[in-house]
Amino acid sequence: MTPSSVHDIRNLSLLGQAGSGKTTLAEALLAAAGEIGAAGSVERGDTVSDYDPQEKSMGHSLHASLVHLEWAGHWINLLDAPGLPDLAGRALATLPAVETAAVVVGAGSGVESGTRRMMTAARGKCRMIIVNKIDAAGTDFAALLDAIVAEFGRECLPINLPAPGGGKVVDCFFAPDGATTTAFSSVNTAHSAIVDQIVELDEELMAKYLEQGESLDPEQLHAPFEQALREGHLVPVCFVSARTGAGVRELLDILGRLAPDPTEGNPPAFLKGEGAAAGRVEVALDPERHVVAHVFQISNDPYRGKLGLFRIHQGQVTPSSQLYVGDGRKPFKVAHLLRMQGRNAVETPLGVPGDLCTVARVDEIHRDAVLHDSHDEDYFHLAPQAYPQPVYGLALITKKPADEQKLSEALARLTDEDPCLEVSYDVRGRRTVVRGLGEQHLKIVLDELSTRWNLQLDTAPPAIPYRETISVVAEARYRHKKQSGGAGQFGEVALRVEPLERGAGLQLGDEVKGGAIPTNFMPAVEKGVRQALAEGALAGFPIQDLRVVVTDGKHHAVDSNEVSFATASRHALIEAVLAARPQVLEPMLDVQVKVADALFGEVSGELSARRGRLTSTDSPAAGWMLISARVPMSEMDGFESRLKAICAGESEFVLEAGGYEPAPQDVQNELARSFATTGNGNGG
């Protein structure tokens, strides 16, 4: 089957902490719907969505995998997203493709850092929480729901409840039976709470429900239910055990009957133009209009080549469609329109609005590309998805010099697949540097480089990306004058530097009057300023968070030229910065560590020894502590390995970029001394 109408489609991303059972849940849903004969298991390595050898070896999803199933006339597309904290970018990339973010919570684990991150990122989507593993012995369901409500708000309401022991679930919405025993609360209480929440958005229904005492059937509640999902006024909580099958069929009913179809979700924000001039463009879920589709994921298959997974937002796509990639002038023919079932690709004759499809062997396709069949859609793009900033780096050195080009090509493919993998070139060290979200992220990347591209690499810690800034206002004037027979060189520049708040970057100003510097030389002045800012003044690191204002200068009718003014402005900028009480800034990381209560002292001591500053502590679940700290990037080398040794692997660890702070004076002095001695810093 292939969906023939937008109203048949349900698009969901399974998100949440690693270990919550997302892949096992996807298997259970596929088996219950008859798509597969029996559910596979992560332990056996035979699941539909975790098919990569690296995934099987690690026992974790490493890439978002698309599967589909049919249930009661509804076509359900499921994206099984990675849950490892270091692969958060790969999970977040699925959000533009779906209406519903289904955040999976392990009943025994409770609300974890991955739960919080994905619930926050999915704001603006319709959200639901799926409590998995309800068969776990000793689960306090009432306490778990209280924790969910405390964390995410009173709009989190159960749509069904587990029976005692978690052997089945009890419906609290479609046909509630108040006499049925539940593990906590009651059917009537849960039913009243969710109906009360829904009818708040519809005055007419509220009048019927409250004033006339009329009961409301699910069909009457459907429209306000969808509105409540869109507005974040309701986050349904469902209970299930993917392992035993308890609640799986009930969950399929909920997805088919209540999850929004593409017309009922919040429409995507398509923009035309760049920056502040970009304007909102409406797309319509109309099969008769020209095609607009968004590529949300790229994967590179050894047999099928580059695969582009895309969401159709307007029009229809067929194997004969001719599509453009962004503002490209040459179309490609779709030829083979595919549906993915994990690794397996099935040819399909039609993709309708709201559908998720795949095209293969289109080299120019890339993540976040907009596909279209009309050049009226040039420069269309989807409002950008927010991703965490890569913070953990490694320098890569090929063991065989001949592999440099191969490494470059492999990294280009990996960065196309992973929005949180960043590649740069350290000019000072003459090495390729990759940055990701943590040590585990880069270990996965290194394994991919080894297994997929047969690259033999050495690694080294990358240079710390220190920066310089200024503390006070200062001025400087510099005259560049050179005579060598014939036309010489002459340029004089006066400028002022002013400190800006942290993170403000660079601002350039021009207060030159009376033609002291002719306008045709001002680009050369700016070039010299930018060159000096890139080179640094105190310790050889790029200078940031300042305003540079050119105030005056002099020129010579014969000897002035671009080189003269670029040189003069470069020297003037360095002198002004050195007079403005310069300081070195060090990059900071915001660190979250979840550890057992008994290990709190040892882990917090380890962070303090690395110049870390504890910012908060919390108790997310009984027996666990969540430590938040701010630590210099330069001190984090080896921390993850040390944490595993302290906690015997039983811990969670998340890094996020935390901006810049002034480095301690002894660190600044050493960096400045090294620069003065060698003329070279150690950062990038």
TrEMBL record:
One of its GO terms (molecular function) is translation elongation factor activity. Residues 7-263 form the Tr-type G domain. SUPFAM superfamilies: EF-G C-terminal domain-like, P-loop containing nucleoside triphosphate hydrolases, Ribosomal protein S5 domain 2-like, Translation proteins. Transmembrane segments: none annotated. Keywords: Elongation factor, GTP-binding, Nucleotide-binding, Protein biosynthesis. Catalyzes the GTP-dependent ribosomal translocation step during translation elongation. During this step, the ribosome changes from the pre-translocational (PRE) to the post-translocational (POST) state as the newly formed A-site-bound peptidyl-tRNA and P-site-bound deacylated tRNA move to the P and E sites, respectively. Catalyzes the coordinated movement of the two tRNA molecules, the mRNA and conformational changes in the ribosome. This is Elongation factor G. It comes from Thauera sinica. The lineage of its organism: Bacteria, Pseudomonadati, Pseudomonadota, Betaproteobacteria, Rhodocyclales.
